[in-house]
Prior knowledge:
The complex is a heterodimer of chains A (553) and B (584).
Chain A: H1 2-8, E1 42-43, E2 81-82, H2 109-112, E3 116-122, E4 127-130, H3 139-154, E5 159-164, E6 167-174, E7 177-183, H4 189-207, H5 210-217, H6 231-240, H7 246-249, H8 259-273, E8 279-284, E9 287-293, H9 301-313, H10 315-320, E10 322-326, E11 331-336, E12 341-347, H11 353-369, H12 372-382, H13 411-414, E13 427-434, E14 439-442, H14 452-469, E15 479-484, E16 500-506, E17 510-516, H15 522-538, H16 540-543
Chain B: E1 9-15, E2 29-33, H1 39-59, E3 67-70, E4 73-81, E5 84-91, H2 102-120, H3 123-129, H4 134-150, H5 156-161, H6 168-172, E6 178-181, E7 194-195, H7 201-216, E8 224-229, E9 232-236, H8 240-254, H9 256-259, H10 268-274, E10 277-280, H11 289-295, E11 319-321, E12 327-329, E13 345-347, E14 354-362, E15 365-372, H12 379-408, E16 421-426, E17 431-434, H13 437-440, H14 445-467, E18 476-481, E19 487-493, E20 496-502, H15 509-548, H16 554-563, H17 570-576
Parallel strand pairs in B: 7-17
Antiparallel strand pairs in B: 1-2, 1-5, 3-4, 4-5, 6-10, 8-9, 8-15, 11-12, 13-14, 14-15, 16-17, 16-20, 18-19, 19-20
Helix pairs in contact in B: 2-8, 7-12, 7-15, 15-16
Domain FUZ/MON1/HPS1 third Longin (chain A): 426-539
Region (Disordered) (chain A): 1-63, 80-107
Domain FUZ/MON1/HPS1 first Longin (chain A): 116-236
Amino acid sequence: MSETSSSAHDPEPPIRLNLPPLSPSLFDAEPSELQQPNGSAVRNSSDPSSPTSSGYAAEQGSSTATIVTQVEEVLHNEIQEITIDDPQPLSHSSRLPGKRHSDEDDASISWRRRKKHFFVLSHSGKPIYSRYGDEHKLAGFSATLQAIISFVENGGDHVKLVRAGKHQVVFLVKGPIYLVCISCTEEPYESLRGQLELFHGQIIVILTKSVNRCFEKNPKFDMTPLLGGTDLVFSSLVHSFSWNPATFLHAYTCLPLAYATRQAASAILHDVTDSGVLFAILMCRHKVISLVGAQKASLHPDDMLLLANFVMSSESFRQDFRSIFSCLLATVQCFGISDDTYLMLLTTSSDAFYHLKDCRISIETVLVKSNVLSEAQRSLVDGGMRVEDLPPLPYSGSSHLGQHRLPSDSPERLREPDCGIGGAAGLWHFIYRSIYLDQYISSEFSSPINTPKQQKRLYRAYQKLFASMHDKGLGPHKTQFRRDENYGNYFFVLGSVEGIVLLCWVTQDFELYAAFDPLADKALAIKTCNRVCQWVKDVENEIFLLGVSPFSW
Amino acid sequence: MGVSSNESIQLCIFDLRRGQNEGQELDKILFFFPAGFPFSKQLSVIGLSEALITFTRIFSPEAACEVIEAELHSHVFHEAEPDIWMVMVVEKSNDSEPIWGDDALRKVLKEIHSLFVMFHGSIREMLEKESSGGLTRRHLYSFIMDYLRACKKQSPWDNCCCGNGEVAVSNDFLAGKKLLLPSFRDSLKERGTVQMLTISREAAIEVQSLARVLESSAGNTLCYSLILFQDLLVSTTLSPADTINLFTYAVLRLTPHALSSGSSSWSYVRKGITASNAASESNMTHPNSMSESFYGSSDISSGEDDYYHVVRPLQSDKWSKGKDGYLVTDLWGAEVGTWVFATPTVWLQQTGEKMYLCVYQHRSLTLMLMIPVSSVPNGEQGVAEVRQRIIENASLKILKVEEKLSKGWGGENAYHVSGYRYLLVDGDRNVSRASPATKVTTLTKESLLAMNKLRQEVELEKSRAKLDRCNFEKDLEICVRAKNNAWVISRVTRGKELYMVLEKANETLLYASDAVEKFSDRYAIGVLSLVWSIVFFHAQITILIEKTIFSLNEKVFLKNLEDFGLYFYSFFIWESKILLPKKL
Lengths: 553, 584
């Protein structure tokens, strides 16, 4: 610490760069005699004779010797001097056991090669959260991020994005909280930024906005302890960035249910909203069964996503089926009803605990008597819409989601020439988003999108398409056809080069995203999209929550 | 960003190997525009750049920082030579023309650097020759300032501030004027590519024969030639990279149009520039004496200073046509004790050879001949002999070719395809063709913005595919129907790119893709492959044969063809048998 203070408190006006030094020797191959067996050499920072004692990873009078570090928080006692010589072969470090790889830090090659990092830090440079590695060990790194952000801010600007090769560094400043994502996943900037917004939203859901006040009182406020035990919430959220379309569509999805069943559920919820409850949301995993809100109350689909994520990933929810947390808008009380089904009650009054408890009991009683829970369970098993079931003619049946499964040898099934894989005309998958309902429906994954990797790749392709369609400056485009012979290079493994055709329609009422076989015929694909839209409209009272307008903006 | 000021653009070059000790930071800076910028601010721009280069290398050691996007500024990076970085900072104005593609800006940086290297050799070599860096700074300063002037809107100012330079050069240049940078309006253009003239087969044979005569004028030495008609390339025997450099230079300074600047004759490049975006050059701060001496800007004005001769090849109005048809310039100084101007020299990127550059012009035809300096033992006298020989041997051919090309020339709108606004790029050979600029300007701003956006998306995909180092070239097709109902289309296949805007098109996707199909069938494939097969191949085959004539066998020959990317056109050789030695 002591040897760093000379450079950390430079009285000079900021003519020179005020960034903590990053050593070019990060890339030097010189072996360090102090290397630990595990490859990352750790030196005692209090050793004044150490040539690396000038600060965070700065050494040997190299380029960084002249760079002044201004950030005093950088160099805590807790920070170990780190040299970055890592003689280990790269392959050695690809995957390490353990949930968060807390043995890693920015000196580890394995850490550097992670595909997607999330960092949360305070405006004073204190690490709050890192997806990988131990926050304490990353204090120096965190200070670097802070320095970059504030250096730019001092110039009257705000840094948004840094791109280097396949890597993107995305910055988001939310008051005293800085969020940074470093990723080589090829996701568009807009998507990554949206993910940081959600990340911040999740913090606020957990800690409420009073966090900002704490920072006002004490800039060095350490919020890490407050987030103790919430790792699962964040890792679950980060995970949802690679499978849950709600994270970029800004819409929610419903559990497919017969119209009458959902009506029944809504009726039950409706009773409690008259008694001071702002919102009553009955959910099954990440899907909504029903939702009833008091008049003029509004809840953004993103908030629902964050609440559901919190509930689904919280230990407490699993253990005692009850959780109280307050978020920006209201106190939320959550009750587990069955393994997958839970009820969330939102209220503005903070002392409504007992009242909510009563509400919950009454709702639970009625639910158990009705068939809602069993229907929900059945729907989970049956799944949602499948591209194989796309009706060839205007749908008129009454089976579940119009699934009129034909025997595999039925001649009718063979009528479609292109349905060898997936649905008609090479249709692989689709997402339909109803604009005024704020809801979407995504078809179930079917062949050839079988593996999680393929699903993730498709998800990323949709994400890219969404960003491309919804450019901020240009307003939404109307149509997009995209044929890519090798999409999602990120997952490129020899022999798995795969093409795809994506079609997107944006109208005033809905958005349709559809994925096809790369050889799909354009004309047929367009016809198929029309059929999908028709199909969705035909079954909309099963797949969407109609008749409520919870989002009154 | 990082610098609060009203500057709309900054451009700097710095060397990470220099100025590593405290107090010597200034030594890093090799160039900074505007030169009057306070050193503290210059260092702050460079410090941020340096920090981010180091930072991004943590995660991406193979490709460091390319761009920083902030709310108000973009920083575009280009590592021109190992550890020598060029960074351009542009302000994102919120006025009517706000959009820059960082890729287009990077191409400007690349162009500056490769032109510099063509005339002066690499920056690193220059720095190694003199540790103080003073000479390098002088060279960079005068070169880049001349370049920026060349990129400016044509105005009377040009003539008064770029002449034989008073001290005013460093103070007044660009004053109150607009500096032109690529904008979304250039989204149907591609910098760093060559535009070619489509010619008939007979004409191609004539051109070919002319090129051979030119190149054989210097005896047995291996020369290279470049032939332009108007501002379009007709023939080249140089490598693609050298071709681009010399072509760019020719269009900037040598073609009839460039010589008569201010004339209204047609040019791809000029027209483009007038339609380009303009960033106002706001800082009128006179460089303080310190920065003047730092960059030597007060010394370079006469093109020559006390110690060194700084050649300024981009200075405008320095070339003129002599009576014998050769273009002459005093930019390279004069032979000691005589009034004979020294022959310009260039470095070829591919061979690393220093070449004399002789330029001959007859009407719209510009001939450029590159003769290895090493092969002309008696210097200027030897070059003069070659020039004389060309006049003797080639005059007739030149007349004939010019006549033929003029007859076949379709004029300004020769490559306009009605209903389409397009850009075709062949990435392998760095050739592009686009709708005439006058036609592109009829497009609405919305369409151009959408195209600009689409191109950025495609660029990103392409660069990622490249980084994957997979052998699969990007094969991608995107058709977007924008908010204003225009179709904005991009097709990338095997290194060839087609971009297209259809404004008055039917609303169905099928109609749009049909239109693209028709275009590609008729023009894209037809036009481009014909151009290359005839022109490039004729020109390059000559070289090939001359290079391999003694060791020639069929296999080697075909291998070499492949190296030139000409494998698929080889059938043409067999058929026409123009150039093949009997051995084959």
